[in-house]
Each structure stands twice: as structure tokens, then as C-alpha cells.
Specification:
By secondary structure, the protein is of the alpha/beta class. The protein has helices spanning about 5-20, 70-85, 140-145, 160-175, 225-240, 255-265, 300-310, 335-340, 340-360, 400-410, 420; strands spanning about 25-30, 40-50, 50-60, 65-70, 85-95, 95-100, 110-115, 215-220, 245-250, 270-275, 290-295, 315-320, 365-370, 380-390. The protein folds into 2 domains: about 5-115, no CATH class; about 130-420, 3-Layer(aba) Sandwich (Rossmann fold). The protein has a 7-stranded antiparallel β-sheet, with helices on one face. A 7-stranded mixed β-sheet has the order 10-9-8-11-12-14-13, with helices on both faces. α1 (about 5-20) runs antiparallel to α2 (about 70-85) and α4 packs across α5 (about 225-240). The radius of gyration is 25 Å and the shape is globular.
Length: about 425
């Protein structure tokens, strides 16, 4: 009788483990250079409506997506991926671990190992994740209404919990790029030895290193109810055990009172909320300035304050782009497209955030634009992160794209134009 090839044996072992409850995990690595491919795919077994399913997490550089498949669908999908899209795979079960490795001849080899784990993980679909939001975060998550009294996630707050977790993942990568606490352990529980998806080694440029034991200072401008402010404090103080002072700035006094009350209740040393607005609140020098979902030109106020306060890291997530659209010319050959209002609106948003990135680069920052939360949850999902690497406004060539872009679209005024007048 003909023996099954390595791929079929691997798929058979996966299907059997999903059926008999011995499945632990699945990890697939894509072929090098595959366009649009995720960095890796992680699989776990979950129960949906009482039946086992294969839940897949697709890890990209700046986002994760999830797909749940029945066992039949999962088996077919796995076979297809292994034959065409992936160079290696790892299957963990409570009986054995199986490693599928692409050979030089193109025929993969299957290698068996002793099991890494002898107990299968929980199958609950909504099981609480460890890592950056482990049980040590329960006190403030309960205080903010994200978890109920029993520590369970409220169904209505699932999107908010996902947003907080995503924010902490991004902030941890950015902190490491800044050179802060790169030896600290803030990685995801699925990959304990990894630096995390999308992480980049800390740069060696200006202000990259901080004095050992010094207190990191972070301002969260327009912090609202403080979900992400508590999250940032939790990351540095509780997860990384580093001295930090986090200052939440909010214009509504009732929110300042409620967040300060919660901070006192959980004895959040180094966390404080004050009344004020983004543009004019008096602040000391800051290592990081964050303003998420600041409306219209309040985002520009936050960028300006970050530069003025000497922040190494500036993070904004803009919304309500109103300033530039009334000023837009319709240069050819775009005029025939821009008479559609939605296209003009999207161009104005693109141009506003593009100019913000250019201003920051002129101010000596390395910038990146990324997806903050998935577009199905909110269309306002862009995050602009900037890390200072050079002296501000020293590169005359970096100003030229700002002037050219404004001239081509007829932009007479941008909220950051005062920098043009000063330099």
C-alpha cells in the first residue's frame, strides 16, 4: 500500500487532533517574498455552537485578522496552503509535535518530536487573553466598565477591549523603537520568544537612549474616559515594571474627577488626570505625547505641542478632517473625479494627514502611518506615529514637499503653517 506523502500525513494528524481533543496549536510560515502574505498564521481549536472549529489568526505587520473554519473546511484549507503557499508548518498536539519543512528538492520532510505540552488549551471562543491585558489589568478594566464584577468581558465592550489591546501592542513596539526598555518583556503570549509582529530594532539616533532608572513622562491629550491612558500606564508600570508618569489631559471636569477617583482606588502610582485642552495646557517636557481621535485641527495642536515639548515619540489618530476641503483646487486631471463629493472628502483627509507626516519629517521625526483598528469597526482608523531622530527644521530639503503639495492643491493655510513662518 502506498504511504501518504508528508503533507497528507501532516493534514491527517491535524484533523485527528482536532477531532479527538488533543490539538494544541498550529503555526504556518509563508513562502519568502509572497506578495500580500501574512507574516505567519496561528491556529487554535475553539468550540462554536458546541462543535470544534479551527480558528486562524493571520499576522500582518500592522494588523491581525481572524477566520473560523469547520473541521472539514479547516482540513481542506490546510492542505491547499501547504501545497502552494507555505514553506514550513508546526502542529502541536498532546501526543506529539509535528514539523513540516520544505526540502531543497521541493518535497517537504515531516519530523516528529515529543509533545511540548501534554494538556490541551481551553476551547472557549471568547477566552480571556493573557499578556499585556492579563488579570493585573482587571481592576481598572472593571472600574471603566469594560469587564463586569466577575471579571468577564461585557459583550457591549468587546470592540473597546480589542482597541485597548491593539493600542498596547502598537505602543510596546514604538517604545522599543525609541530605545526604551528594549530588554523588557512585553510580547504576546502566543510567541514568548518573539519581539512581536511588526517590531523594528531600536534606532541609534538622537535621544534614543534614556538614563537607567529615570522616569518616562507621557501625556495623553484629550483622553476622555481614560481607557487608553490607563492602558499606557499599565504597560509601563505593571507589565514592564518601569518608573513612569502618565498625565491624562481632558477638558471635561466630570471625566477628570471620575478617572482620578479610579486611579486613587487602584493605587495607580504615577497616573494623574488634569483639566485642560490640547492647545494651551501647561506641561513639562515630555518623552511621549499621544492624542487619539482629536477632532479636526486639535490633532495639529497635539503635533505642535509634542514638538515644542521635545517629545521623542508623538502618536496621533486623526478624525474630523474639516480644514482643507473648502480650500481644495481641482487640478487636472483630477477635476473630473473630484466633482464627486465623497472623492473630494477622501482626498482632503489624505492630504491633511499627508501634510502632517511631512511636517513631522521636517521637524526631525521618522514617521509611519498604520491601521489602528480594523476598518469594519470605524472608518477613522489611521494612526500616525513619529519618532524623533534629528534636530528639528535643520533639513531645508524636507520642507520642499510641503510647499509643493500645498501649491498644487491651492492650500492657502494649514494648521501647522506657523512652523513655515518661523523657519
Amino acid at each position: 500500500m502506498k504511504q501518504p506523502d508528508s503533507i497528507e500525513r501532516f493534514v491527517s494528524e491535524a484533523a485527528a487532533s482536532l477531532t479527538d481533543g488533543t490539538f494544541v496549536r498550529l503555526v504556518l510560515s509563508p513562502l519568502a517574498g509572497a506578495e500580500g502574505a501574512p507574516q505567519k498564521i496561528l491556529g487554535r481549536c475553539i468550540l462554536l455552537k458546541g462543535a470544534p472549529h479551527l480558528s486562524l489568526t493571520f499576522r500582518h505587520a500592522t494588523r491581525d485578522t481572524t477566520k473560523n473554519l469547520t473541521l472539514t473546511e479547516g482540513t481542506d484549507w490546510l492542505r491547499e496552503q501547504l501545497r502552494h503557499g507555505f514553506r514550513s508548518a508546526l502542529l502541536g498536539t498532546t501526543k506529539s509535535d509535528w514539523q513540516l519543512i520544505a526540502g531543497e528538492s521541493g518535497s517537504p520532510r515531516l519530523i516528529g518530536h515529543k509533545p511540548t505540552r501534554k494538556q490541551a488549551p481551553p476551547r472557549e471562543h471568547d477566552r480571556k487573553r493573557a499578556g499585556l491585558l492579563d488579570s493585573s489589568a482587571d481592576d481598572w478594566l472593571q472600574g471603566l466598565g469594560v469587564l463586569d464584577r466577575d471579571g468577564k468581558l461585557r459583550a457591549s465592550m468587546a470592540d473597546k477591549h480589542r482597541q485597548i489591546r491593539r493600542y498596547l501592542e502598537l505602543l510596546s513596539h514604538l517604545a522599543k523603537e525609541c530605545g526604551w526598555f528594549e530588554s523588557a518583556s512585553g510580547v504576546s503570549p502566543e510567541e514568548p520568544s518573539s519581539t512581536g509582529a511588526g517590531s523594528i530594532p531600536p534606532s541609534e539616533h538622537l535621544c534614543c537612549r534614556r538614563d537607567a532608572g529615570s522616569t518616562l513622562r507621557l501625556a495623553d491629550m484629550g483622553c476622555g474616559k481614560g481607557y487608553l491612558t490607563f492602558g499606557a500606564w499599565h504597560l509601563f508600570q505593571r507589565v514592564w515594571k518601569q518608573p513612569v508618569r502618565v498625565l491624562g489631559v481632558e477638558v471635561r471636569p466630570e471625566l477628570v474627577a471620575s478617572t482620578n477617583k479610579l486611579a486613587r482606588q487602584i493605587r495607580a502610582e504615577g497616573l494623574e488626570f488634569i483639566s485642560g485642552n490640547i492647545a494651551s495646557t501647561q506641561l513639562p517636557r515630555m518623552d511621549a505625547l499621544i492624542a487619539l481621535h482629536a477632532c479636526n485641527t486639535a490633532t495639529d495642536d497635539a503635533i505642535r505641542r509634542g514638538i515644542e515639548l521635545g517629545a521623542k515619540l508623538i502618536v496621533v489618530a486623526p478624525c474630523c478632517h474639516k480644514e482643507l476641503r473648502p480650500q481644495l483646487n481641482r487640478p487636472e486631471p483630477l477635476a473630473s473625479v473630484l466633482h464627486h463629493g465623497i472623492m473630494e472628502e477622501r482626498l482632503a483627509e489624505w492630504l491633511t494627514d499627508g501634510l502632517r507626516a511631512l511636517f513631522l519629517e521636517w521637524a526631525g521625526y521618522r514617521t509611519k502611518l498604520m491601521e489602528f483598528v480594523a476598518s469594519e469597526h470605524t472608518p477613522k482608523n489611521l494612526m500616525l506615529a513619529a519618532i524623533r531622530e534629528r534636530e528639528p527644521f535643520a533639513d531645508a530639503a524636507a520642507r520642499k514637499p510641503i510647499d509643493e503639495l500645498k501649491a498644487w492643491f491651492g492650500i492657502r493655510h494649514h494648521a501647522l503653517d506657523d512652523w513655515l513662518e518661523r523657519h
